[in-house]
Structure formats: C-alpha cells, structure tokens
Amino acid sequence: MSTDTPHIGHVVVVGAGMAAHRFVESVVSRDTGPLRITVIGDERRLPYDRVGLTSFFAGAAPDDLVLDRAPFDDPRVTLLPGDPVTSIDRRRRTVHTASRTEIAYDALVLATGSYAARPAVDGAELPGCFVYRTIDDLEGLSAFVARRRAELGRELIGRVVGGGLLGLEAAGALQGLDVACTVVHSGTHLMSAQIDRAGGEVLGRLISQRGIGVRTESRTTRLDPDRTGQVAGLEFRDGSYESADVVIFTVGVRPHDALARAASIDCAPTGGVRIDETCRTTDPSILAIGEVASFEGRCVGLVAPGYAMAEVAADRLLGGEATFPGFDESTKLKLSGVDVASFGDAMAASPDALDVVYTDPVGGVYKKLVLSDDATTLLGGILIGDASAYGALRPLVGRPLGGDPAAYLLPQGGVEAPTGDLPDDAIVCSCSSVTAGRIREAVHEDGCADAGEVKACTRAGATCGSCFVAVKKIVGTELSALGKTVSNALCEHFDMSRRQLFDAIAVSELTTFSTIVARFGRGRGCDVCKPTIASILSGLVGEHVLDGETATLQDTNDHVMANMQKDGSYSVVPRMAGGEVTPAGLIVIGEVAQEFGLYTKLTGGQRIDMFGARLEQLPQIWKRLVDAGFESGQAYGKSLRTVKSCVGSTWCRYGVLDAVGMAVKLELRYRGLRAPHKLKLGVSGCARECAEARGKDAGIIATENGWNLYVGGNGGFTPRHAELLAEGLGDDELIQAIDRFFMYYIRTADRLQRTAPWFADLDGGIDGLREVIFDDSLGLCADLDAAMAKHVEGYEDEWAATLADPEKLTRFHSFVNAPDTPDPSLAYVSERGQVRPASRAEREDGSVVIAGTTLEVRR
Amino acid sequence: MTTIERTSQATTSWVRVCALSDLDVERGRAALIGGTQVALFRLADGTVRAVSNYDPYGDAHVLSRGIVGTKSLADGFEVPTVASPLHKQAWDLRTGAVLETQGRDERAIAAYPVAVDDGQVLVRGKEA
Ligand code: SRM
Ligand SMILES: Cc1cc2nc3c(=O)[nH]c(=O)nc-3n(C[C@H](O)[C@H](O)[C@H](O)COP(=O)(O)OP(=O)(O)OC[C@H]3O[C@@H](n4cnc5c(N)ncnc54)[C@H](O)[C@@H]3O)c2cc1C
Ligand code: SF4
Ligand code: FES
Question: Parallel, antiparallel, or unpaired for β A640-645 and A427-429?
Fold first, then answer.
C-alpha cells in the first residue's frame, strides 16, 4: 500500500457521475502538486445533478443540471465523455474503453454508480417502457409521450411500476407530462422500504389526493404490446389486467459492478464492489466510491454516502487518514405538495427501541419518532404530511432529544427548531456532510455574513436544499451571538434599511438617484437598491415610472410595464377591477390575443393574462387595449395587484352587501399604489368567504352589520390568514381604515416585506395597529390620509401616458439599430391549441418550431 | 476557470451601431451585429460598454434589459455591472467576468471592444 506517498501520479476514474465529480473536486481543491486525473464516462455529458433529475420536467435544460464545471476546467483534469470502459487489466494497470483506447493508471477509482433494473418479465423491453436514471432516459420518455399522444389522439395512461421514493417522483413527472398515472407497488404500502404501514397508508391517501392512482400488493407478471408493437397493458399476478400507454420501472437499482467482477475484484454476493472503511477494494491500487461500492455488505442508493466516500478516497490517495463512517440513510421526497421524510432508524430496528407516534388521518399527517429504550436518545423517525421538523430533527439522530418527544410531533408552530444548541459535530447538511460546527466556523472564521455566503462557502444547503432553513437558523444565532446584529443594510451601496432610507429621502427632499446615492450611499447602485429607491420616490414624488432618471432604476418589468417571461418575452395583464369584465371587453382581449398569437390564461387573480408578447409589440398591443378602454393591470409592479371579489348580494342568494361594487371601488382607489411589496385585497359578500379575502393583505367580509376588515393575510410561500382589525364598518369608514393601513405599511415596512411579516413584527400587534388607525396614537392619521389623497388624485394610467409620448416609445425598440426586428432566438411550439416557448432541445432540433409568436400573422 | 469567448481579430471589424445619443445613461439597449445580439450600456462616467446580450443561466437574450450598477471588489476597486433581469446573476461590464452567480457555476459572457467617434458608437464584432 502506498498511503503515505504524496506523489500519486495518474488517477483514472471510471464513471463521470456525482461521486466522481465530488472526488475530482476534492482532489483538485487541495493543492497537490504534480498529479493528473482522467475521468472516463459513458454518458455524453459533464457530470450532472442526478438528484435534481426530475426538474428536467419542470423546464430545466440538461445544462442547468450540470454540476460545477470548475474542477473539470482544471488543467490537471481530463474528461473523456461518451466512451465506456470495457475492461480493467490489473496486472498491467490499464483500462480499455469502447473506442479501443488504452489508458494506464497509478490508482484507479471505480465510480460507475448503478443502473436501473427492469423486472424479469416478458415485455419489459417493449417500446414505451422506460427506466428513470439518466437525462437520456428522460429525454426518451418525454419524446415518446409527445409522439404517442399525437399518434393516439387522446390522453395517455401511464403506470409506474415500483412505489418507492423514485417511483413517486417518476409518477409526479408523468403527471407533469399530462399523463394520467397510477403507481403499482408489490408491497403492502408505498415506500415500504423506508416507512411503516400506518405511515404508508397516510402517504397513499396524500398521493391519491394529488391525482395519482395507487395500486398496492400487485406484482406485474407480463407486459403486452398492441399491433404496432408498443406497450399496451400489464398483467398482474392475480390475473387482473390494466391498460398502459407508457410504463416507467422504478423497481430498484443494481450496482454497475460488471467491470470489477470481470477483473476478479471481490464483490458482494448481492452486488457491489466490496470496500473497507478507506474505500479500497481487494486490489490496493483500486478504490470504489458511490453507489457501486458495497460497504459492510450493502450498497445504498443515496448521494450523501457517495460524497462521503469520495472525500475519503481523495483524502486517502493524498496520504490522509479519513475513514468512511457508514451510511446515513435519511431521505426526503421531492414531490411537490407531498411532504415525506424518513431518517435514522426509521423502522425501529434497534433492540428495545420505543416509538412515539402522532397521526391525524383526516389532515393527512403521520409522524413517528424512534427513541432509545429510555426514551431520551433520538434514533430516527418518519414524517408524512408535515415534514417541517426534518431539518431540525435529522441532525439530532444519536443524541439526546432534550425535551418531550411529543412536542416535536404536534402540528407546526409548537416548537422552535432546536438547532441553536446543536453540538458542533452534529451533521446538519447530509448531502455535503456539513456539521453545525463547520457552519459556525464559516461565520466566525471565514467571515460569512449570511446564510447565502455560508452555503457558497461550505456547500451546506446547496444540493437538495432541505436543510437550508436549519442552516439559516444557526447562522442567525451565531451572528447575533457575535453581537453583529444581522445587518439590515439594503446592499453594498447603502448601509440603511429601506425604512431608514425612506425617512432620509423624505427629510432631505432629494428626488433623483444620483443625488441620493451621492449623499447617503456609495457607487452607482445595483439591482437591489435601485428599484427600492424607485419605489420610495414614486410614493414621495409620484411621477410616471418612465420619467427622467427614475426610468433607469426600474426592473425590466416596471420599465416596460409588463412581466418578463423565461425566454425574454413578456406577458400582458389588463386591469379587470374586481374581476369584472364586459362581453365586449372579452371580445377585444380575444381579438388581440389572436392577432398577436399570444398564449391566454386566466390568472389566480381573477383576470386574463396574455403571454409571449415581444418587447417591440408591447406598444401595439397596448394601443389596442387602451383604445378599447383597458388600462394597465400592474401585474409587474410592487403595487396593488388585484381586488378579488365574489358576486355578492347582486346575484348570490346569500350575499348581504355588494361585494363586487366594493371591490371595484377599492381597486380603482388603490390602483398604481407602489409599496414595499405587492398588495392584494379580497371582498366577500358574506361569511362563506368565496373570495378568500382572509388570504389577502386586506380582506373585507360583508356582515349584516357592515364590513369586517381583516389585515395582514397572504398566500404564497408562508400562507397566513388575515386578522380582524375592525367590525361593522360603513363604506367610508372602511375605506379610511384601509387608506391608513396601507400608507402606514408603505412608510414603515422593509424592502420586499409583505403586510403579514410586517404586521407580525409590529409593536403592540393588532391592538397597537388599531390605536394607530382609529385612535391616532402616533398623530400620523392626517399625514396618512393626505398621502393617500395625493395618490388617488395623481393616478394616471401608465400605459396610456406612455403611448402618448413618442420619446418613451423608443424604449420598446428590440434593437437600437433594428427597432422592429424580432429577437431571432425566440421560438415557440404549439400545445393544446396555443403557443409555448420551445425547450432547448426543441429549438436545437428545429423540427417542431414556430419561430416568433406572430411572424405568420403579422409580417 | 471558464474561458471567455473572444472574437478573433482576423474576422472582425469596427461596426457603426448607433449614435451615442440613442443610448440612455445606465439603461442598456440591444443591438444586432451580424447575427450576434450585443448589449450596449452607456455609463454615468460617459464610457460605453458592450457585452453579449445572452444570459447563459437563463438561456435567453435579455442582458440589455438588466439593471446597471457597480460592485466594489475585494481590493476596493469599483467595477460597472449589469444584473440579469431573469435571475439576478451579475457580470463585469468591462470583461464579461461573472461577479454574482447566485450559487450557480461560473459562466462568463463575451465582452466587445467599443469606440465612440464623433458621436457615433462603434463596436468591434463580426459583420454579417
Ligand atoms: C399570473 C399569475 C399565475 C397565474 O397564471 O394565475 C402569477 C404569476 C406570478 N406570480 Fe403570483 N401569480 C398570480 C397569482 C398569485 C396568487 C393568487 C392570488 O393573487 O390570489 C398568489 C398567492 C396569494 C398571495 O400573493 O398572497 C401568488 C403568490 C406569488 C408569490 C408569493 C408571495 C408571498 O408573499 O409569498 C410570488 C413571489 C413574490 O412576489 O415575491 C409571486 C410571483 C409571481 C410572478 C411575478 C413571478 C415572476 O417574477 O415571474 C409571476 C409573474 C406574472 C406574470 O408573468 O404575468 N406570486 N400569485 C397570477 C397573477 C394574478 C394577477 O392577475 O395579477
Ligand atoms: C430521479 C432520481 C432522484 C434521486 N433523488 C435522490 C435524493 O433525493 N437523494 C439522494 O440522496 N439520492 C437521490 N438519487 C440517487 C443519486 O442520484 C445517486 O445516489 C448518485 O447519483 C450516485 O452517484 P454515483 O456517482 O455513485 O453514480 P452515478 O451518478 O449514477 O454515476 C455513475 C456514472 O458512471 C457511468 N458508468 C457506468 N459504467 C461505466 C463504464 N463502464 N464506463 C464509464 N462510465 C460508466 C454511468 O453512466 C454514470 O454516468 C436520485 C436518483 C435519481 C435517478
Ligand atoms: S361569499 Fe359566497 S355565498 Fe356569500 S355572497 Fe359571495 S358567493 Fe354568495
Ligand atoms: S441536506 Fe441536502 S443540501 Fe443539505
């Protein structure tokens, strides 16, 4: 063995997957002098993030999945993609590849991963049957689905065979491709390898609620083709039969150990190249890492142990003493809308383990903690339906829980994540093996000033992201312990918070960015402070968003008064106050959308959005809309969005007040009001609350006694119900209360702070707010009323004003030297009768593309 | 390190793109030079900068529509920047080097030489 020879010569890595990537990164990041690494991979790509594979269906291009390229740009590293290694000659220390290249090694690292297994039944290889492992698999699957759907002219039926973690992810992906889908599982319940039966049943219900069928205790025995030879159905052991147009097998993975076996390297009987805790195989110059490696008789299909092995292998080759500690098998399901996590000894396999279970079958929640026999040490657990405690609990595995176990299981809000006092050696991020101590060190020694910097510096939270909340928490605690109050500086150009800056600008009466930055800041600003100052100025000065220097401060959305979409085109949302629109208005919208070839959809805010408008088309489109009486819906601004209404007393048999009328009135009053974040209102005609008003910044609900006003609600990332501020208000009282509420918020909230978190931080809570608004406890009311009056008076439709000013229109030229030439890179395909942006693959192969949305109709 | 694409001198020439007065201070404009989309920026100090209009993270030609600003580097040196309107990655307008990756890998963009002559903006690039 050559463990202490620092001169390691030529290292050859077989397989260019995730473990290989980490290995190369680890070696090159330590300055190791003369060494060469050659990585040989059979996929035709740079190593990519297999864990994030499913995001391919959410629109990620293959390139987005590529892992950090930097280690492979290192001059000492060579990547040979698309050339599988076919044999190892241990005596001569060489490997051979399919392209008949022979490469000599001083040390060889096997990182060939696993392949996805197919069940050994007839028909498993039929066209239409897929596995779910590589980008190529996914590209094949989505191309097949598109083609098969066109061929059959109907919705496709999909079956996922195998109800583990991967199967559920694949089912979500099929659903995303609009394929009606059922998961077929041979066990008694879903994810039977990780969770117990009671939990599996709760999970089954959650999955069904998501529109995915579940069929358990069904073993597939045969697959049949139709006349065209493509898969058409599955037969089960009980003789029943179900049709299928596309099938994905997720029945497990098998280590890619054929090379090692052929070279007589010792392999486990169940598969996998046997390694010791130094990651060496029975041949001391050959190491194995990742899913292909069998440690203590097992291979584990998770990335974290593979990364840990990669670090050990790198360290050992460079003369270090690292050892592989064993597998951490914690997992979290990445299927949106379904929370499932299991960690540690989830199945309570340890002798005398106790479990504490909380279930709410109606709410779809099942949580179990596995504890040592004296009920003090946490051994593992399962969280279904609400996995919010995952990040906090996982690092505690093997440690005293420090509290009543039940407290961790009760519905959210009960306990604070205990990460503040985690011991230094507790692993917080298992993807990258980052301990609490390392995170603290990043704050204290590496000078990281926030969780984002800690992520960049330690990689904690950079892979699956499930630990990031816990990371943030530790960073926050450390910073405040250091006495460094978590900085509230807006950005590197201003040391003040938004609120302080608002006051500074108001007092100094400065009205341009240049004077403000010269007086209170430094440099020429950035994408954080410029839009903030634009928003503050619009409240204080109230000029058109495209006037003077202010125009240059705006985000593209505000600058061109439309929302930029992923391909650089824009969406157009005319205002439909209260969700009301006339038949004539609808016809105009229809005509405009048709003429300009725009994709049309109803928004979640009760109005119509038209997508795919090019920069240079925006004025033409808005000309048509403004002529027909529409105005900007300001879907782009940090400003009033919509006032959602229910039909109310005008039509509804339960309505007690005119909800639509009030909604229209409020929307017209607050339209164009710029704020730290967007503002939404809702008005319901009775307590049945069909307008979901309590999910809004201001929610108004009609009662027999007048309007009830609720404030501080929102949907979005952290949903919160609005709280009752006042009851039984008349129309004018209601409006005055909302005026003051909004203006007080606008003056005092932080950048991008919606009313809910602002309100949560407010001194005195709801009572304090009531005193400010109704008892004028701060003596501010007259100011707030005046500011709102000024806003209402000064309102003008930004689009009408822009169209009237030819100078402003030059901003919509696509190119300064070719004002009407469409962006030549835009390309669309048709889907369900409308356009959508072509994916990168579609653009590259060019076959299905409609160039530019409207070329065919407008040119 | 990622390599920055540089247009080779042999096949390029100075192309007149627009008048300086067509550009607003600190608000970019796109230009078509041959088949290439270039983003032009006129800075507060009067300099004009040209970089690729293509956002390599967002896979769309949008950089001319980003917010212009500055960033001070570790040595205190202040460099002009543009931030993508899609996901806020930011680049050095002088060199095309990426200064803010938002946690992604480093992807630099091409930077093109610019000259201002007699009120006209010239960019050295490939002619059609
Ligand atoms: C178009 C629309 C989705 C749809 O097809 O229905 C939409 C689309 C966007 N939403 Fe939304 N939201 C839309 C209704 C909603 C709703 C439902 C509602 O308003 O009742 C919500 C939850 C309610 C709420 O806001 O409390 C919603 C919560 C969000 C959030 C999360 C806010 C939060 O506080 O957590 C964001 C992110 C943000 O603003 O920072 C967001 C951001 C966005 C952005 C701006 C994201 C972006 O930067 O591209 C999208 C741009 C709109 C566009 O391109 O036109 N959107 N968004 C809906 C437009 C409504 C409208 O007519 O203006
Ligand atoms: C959809 C999906 C979701 C997942 N989600 C998670 C998750 O949430 N959490 C988690 O921990 N894990 C998850 N995983 C598992 C994780 O991706 C793997 O554990 C990880 O990729 C293993 O890394 P590896 O380097 O060992 O193998 P791989 O990444 O598979 O890399 C091995 C590479 O070697 C190549 N190769 C094989 N044989 C040869 C040869 N003879 N010559 C050359 N090259 C060869 C293979 O083609 C492959 O490119 C998921 C996997 C999938 C498919
Ligand atoms: S809230 Fe519902 S029930 Fe009440 S008026 Fe509106 S639509 Fe009718
Ligand atoms: S646990 Fe996956 S990124 Fe930290």
Answer: unpaired
For residue A305, report the phi and psi dihedrals to the nearest 5 degrees.
-65, -35
CA-to-CA separations, A668 to A41, A384, A543, A664, A675, in angstroms, rounded = 61, 45, 18, 6, 16
| Ligand 3 atom index nearest CA of A649 | 5
Nearest ligand (C-alpha, residue A556): 1
CB contact under 8 Å between A530 and B35, yes or no, is no
Residues A490, A417: Cα–Cα separation, whole Å: 28
Angle of helix A765-774 relative to helix A731-748, nearest 10 degrees, comes to 120
Give every CB contact of residue A508 below 8 A, 6+ residues apart in sequence.
A516, A519, A520
**What element of type H or E holds B42?**
strand B36-42
Compute the nearest-CA separation of A593 from chain B (Å): 23
ipTM for this model = 0.69
Inter-CA distances, A109 with A14, A28, A80, A217, A310, Å:
6, 15, 15, 40, 9
Nearest to B32 among A73, A553, A818 (CB): A818
pLDDT at B50: 96
Report CB contact under 8 Å: B71, A825. Answer: no
Residues of A in contact with B25 (CB under 8 A): 549, 552
Residue burial A281-307, b: 16+ Cβ < 10 Å; e: rest: bebeebbbbbbbbbbeeebbbbbbbbb
Domains of chain A: 10-115+255-317 (3.50.50.60), 129-251 (3.50.50.60), 498-554 (no CATH), 638-796 (3.30.413.10), 810-857 (no CATH)
Which of B61, B69, B105 is nearest residue A524 as measured by Cβ atoms?
Answer: B69
CA proximity to A663, closest of A655, B76, A361, A531: A655
With a 6 A CB cut-off, is A646 part of the ligand 3 pocket? Answer: yes
CA distances A594 to A571, A572, A613, A830, Å, are 14, 13, 12, 14
Q: Which residues of B touch A553 (CB under 8 A)?
A: 67
Contact list in B for residue A615 (CB cut-off 8 A) is 65
For the record, the structure tokens of B69 come out as: 């600003």
The confidence score (pLDDT) of residue A411 equals 57
Question: What is chain B's percent helix, strand, coil content, to nearest 5?
Answer: 5, 50, 45
DSSP string, A836-848: EEPPHHHHHH-TT
The structure's pTM equals 0.54
What's the rounded Cα separation, in Å, for the pair A77 and A94? Answer: 18
Q: Is B49 at the interface with chain A, CB within 8 A?
A: no
Q: Is the CB of A685 under 6 A from ligand 3?
A: yes
Please, are residues A48 and A20 in contact by the beta-carbon 8 Å criterion? no
Give yes or no for residue A751 CB within 6 A of ligand 1. Answer: no
Q: At A187, phi and psi to the nearest 5? A: -75, 180
CA separation for the pair B32, B2 (Å, rounded): 25
How far apart, in Å, are the Cα atoms of A213 and each of A11, A195, A216, A222, A372? 48, 19, 10, 20, 37
Please, which pLDDT band fits residue B13 given cuts at 50, 70 and 90?
confident
Pick from A650, A656, A654: nearest CA to A578: A650
Ligand 3 neighbourhood includes A654 CB (under 6 angstroms) = yes
Q: How many CA atoms lie within 13 A of A326 on its CB side?
A: 2
Pocket test for ligand 1, best of A535, A603, A696, A751 (most atoms within 8 A of CB): A603
Confidence bin at B8 (pLDDT 50/70/90): very low
Dihedral sign from CA coordinates of A543, A547, A553, A557: positive
Write down the residue that tokens 């011991």 correspond to. Answer: A423
For A552, which of B25, B54, B85 is closest by C-beta distance? B25
- Which residues in chain A show pLDDT less than 50? 1-6, 412-420, 852-859
Per-residue model confidence (pLDDT) at position B10: 45
In this prediction, residue A238 carries a pLDDT of 87
Q: Go through the domains of chain B in sequence order and give each one's CATH number.
A: 2-126 (2.102.10.10)
